[in-house]
Amino acid sequence: MTDTQSNDETSPALRDDAPLPPGHPVRLAMARVLSDTLMLWRLCLSARCRRNGKCKGDPDACLDIGGALLSDDVFNGGVAFLEAKIDGLSFDEAWAQCPDEFAAFGEWARRIECNAARPR
């Protein structure tokens, strides 16, 4: 092994569970998908996000600010929903893993979808 090569087993940047650095395109895309799944654009002060019906700003800031307004069950339910989709689980399989979080997320989604986003 040369000095410029690293060991794949010990290099944290190459491990699947290593966190992505802030501003990394994949990290931003994942944050945007979670923000959109949680429908945080409906709570956003940015007219651009509300007009487009999805996060068009900084998704990390959106999750920090908007996510703080949600209960842990709702937030965790949104995360579990995305993880279940990634894992290819059926709805019943996903529900069996975390029924309380899915129920909270479903109730949040129903309530926020029933209320139209209003311009501020």
Account of the protein in words:
The protein is built from 6 helices and no strands. It has 120 residues and is mainly α. It has one domain. Helix 1 runs parallel beside helix 3 and helix 4 (72-87) crosses helix 6. The longest helix has 16 residues, at 72-87. It is globular. Residues 1-8 and 10-14 have low confidence and may be disordered.
Radius of gyration: 18 Å
Number of helices: 6
Q: Summarize the helix and strand pattern as letters.
A: HHHHHH
Largest sheet: none
Structural class: mainly alpha
Q: Could you tell me the mean pLDDT?
A: 83
Strand proportion: under 5%
Give me the count of strands: 0
Roughly how much helix do the residues carry, as a percent range?
A: 55-70%
How many structurally independent domains? 1
Shape descriptor reads globular
Low-confidence stretches: 1-8, 10-14
Question: Separation of termini?
Answer: 59 Å
What are the defining features of this structure?
120 residues, disordered N terminus
